């Protein structure tokens, strides 16, 4: 049985099913493991982990005095939170259709990828970042998001371990702009937050490949090296001409947490800006929905569910609410089950209602067979989403079934 407990109640002999938090904040790359020695328990504190899921079928159970939350209780709580957030959302109609914008977005992302590769390799050779090149790129991303935000954000989800750093930079730029729009930022600020997203991880050029691409668990020393990428990136941007203050701030502080337990400066309260708080959310969402050399990705709906579960202490509450409204409570790429018993993948958010997106129906759970794929606008259908499904459990390749 799965139980969520506070780290202070963890004991040697318990089986950790999952750590509640982003896998970038600690070196525990393994999803599940048994705690065999006291130093394992101490490490959980050292990396500021607040809660964990334990599996009582595979390890020690809690005593009756310890508080815990069951899997079903947590699922219910997160679903309620997301439904409340969705109720206040007001999605606007995109200016062009998803299919039309996908054609543009694919070109923009392909060009952007080449530009980011050359920008980062120039920086690796010791040259300053060319800010006009970054600004031009972000302007194109900004325009694509303005025409139809779902298109570019779908294209950047398709990345692999080898192009991860570049695609992640473009993805965080797009997410920052889309979130900035939801927060009502003006166009000049949207460009600045887009540039900040593009350059937030530039400090990774100084991290040795054997650490950056390690498939196993990082040692404490390697993790300490990894944590130097924000200040190192800041130093590089600080000597490059024309870098805005927002990019410097987001580069330095995108791994901070609102509870002051992030890095590198343990900022919280007024010292942690709106932009750094935006960066933290966009960065985690894109990272955990991307396949890395050491970890398979979570599909978007699952990632959002987990972020909602750990948001306390990690993320700014109001900005997280805006983020959920930006990507939807069933973000594009999520596997859902419909009342009719059919399975579908979410394709696009529909104006006005985050609970009824456009989906592509492709499987029947009654006959357990594939159906001819069919686009279905749930805002105009009597069929409805009854729950999110685990894509890994079903073994579907949703990237193939989805928009692309
Ligand atoms: Fe980072
Ligand atoms: Fe990042």
Please render the helix and strand layout as text.
Elements: E1 2-6, E2 15-19, E3 33-34, H1 38-46, E4 51-55, E5 69-70, H2 71-87, H3 98-124, H4 131-147, H5 149-155, H6 164-182, H7 187-199, H8 209-212, H9 220-226, H10 229-238, H11 245-253, H12 274-288, H13 300-314, H14 317-327, E6 335-338, E7 342-350, E8 353-364, E9 369-377, E10 385-388, H15 391-394, H16 398-401
Antiparallel strand pairs: 1-4, 1-5, 2-3, 2-4, 6-7, 6-10, 7-8, 8-9
Helix pairs in contact: 3-4, 3-5, 3-6, 4-5, 4-6, 4-7, 6-7, 6-12, 7-11, 10-11, 11-12
The structure holds fe (ii) ion (FE2) (2 copies).
One fe (ii) ion binds near residues 168 and 200.
Q: What would a concise description of this structure say?
A:
The model has no long low-confidence stretch (mean pLDDT 92).
Describe what this molecule looks like in 3D.
The chain is α+β, with helices and mostly antiparallel strands. It has three domains: 2-67; 98-327, Hypothetical protein af1432 (Orthogonal Bundle); 335-401. It contains 16 helices and ten strands. Strand 7 (342-350) and strand 8 (353-364) form a beta hairpin. Helix 4 packs across helix 6 and helix 11 (245-253) crosses helix 12 (274-288). The longest helix is centred in the first third of the chain and has 27 residues, at 98-124. The relative contact order is 0.11. One fe (ii) ion binds at residues 168, 200-201, 283, 287.
């Amino acid at each position: 049985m799965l139980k969520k407990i506070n780290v202070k109640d963890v004991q040697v002999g318990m089986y950790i099913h999952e750590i509640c938090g982003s896998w970038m904040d600690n070196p525990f790359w393994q999803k599940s493991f048994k705690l065999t020695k006291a130093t394992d328990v101490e490490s959980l504190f050292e990396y500021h982990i607040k809660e964990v899921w334990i599996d009582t079928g595979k390890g020690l159970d809690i005593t009756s005095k310890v508080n815990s939350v069951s899997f079903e209780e947590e699922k219910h709580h997160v679903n309620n939170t997301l439904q409340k957030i969705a109720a206040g959302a007001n999605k606007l109609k995109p200016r062009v259709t998803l299919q039309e914008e996908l054609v543009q977005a694919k070109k923009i992302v392909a060009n952007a990828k080449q530009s980011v590769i050359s920008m980062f390799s120039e920086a690796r050779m010791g040259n300053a970042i060319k800010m006009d090149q970054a600004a031009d790129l972000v302007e194109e991303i900004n325009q694509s998001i303005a025409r139809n935000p779902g298109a570019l954000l779908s294209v950047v989800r398709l990345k692999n371990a080898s192009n991860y750093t570049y695609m992640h930079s473009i993805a965080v730029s797009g997410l920052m702009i889309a979130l900035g729009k939801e927060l009502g930022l003006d166009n000049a600020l949207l460009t600045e937050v887009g540039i900040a997203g593009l350059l937030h991880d530039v400090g990774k050029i100084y991290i040795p490949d054997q650490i950056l691409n390690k498939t196993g668990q990082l040692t404490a020393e390697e993790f300490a090296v990894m944590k130097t990428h924000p200040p190192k990136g800041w130093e590089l941007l600080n000597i490059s001409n024309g870098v805005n203050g927002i990019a410097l701030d987001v580069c330095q502080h995108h791994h901070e947490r609102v509870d002051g337990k992030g890095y590198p400066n343990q900022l919280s309260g007024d010292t942690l800006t709106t932009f750094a708080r935006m960066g933290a959310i966009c960065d985690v969402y894109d990272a955990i929905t991307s396949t890395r050399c050491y970890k398979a990705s979570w599909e978007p709906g699952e990632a959002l569910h987990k972020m909602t579960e750990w948001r306390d202490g990690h993320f700014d509450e109001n900005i997280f609410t805006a983020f959920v409204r930006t990507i939807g409570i069933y973000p594009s790429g999520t596997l859902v089950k419909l009342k009719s018993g059919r399975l579908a993948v979410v394709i696009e958010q529909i104006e006005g209602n985050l609970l009824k997106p456009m989906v592509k129906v492709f499987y029947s759970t009654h006959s357990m067979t594939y159906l001819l794929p069919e686009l279905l606008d749930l805002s105009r259908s009597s069929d409805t989403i009854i729950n999110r499904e685990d894509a890994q459990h079903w073994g579907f390749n949703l990237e193939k079934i989805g928009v692309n």
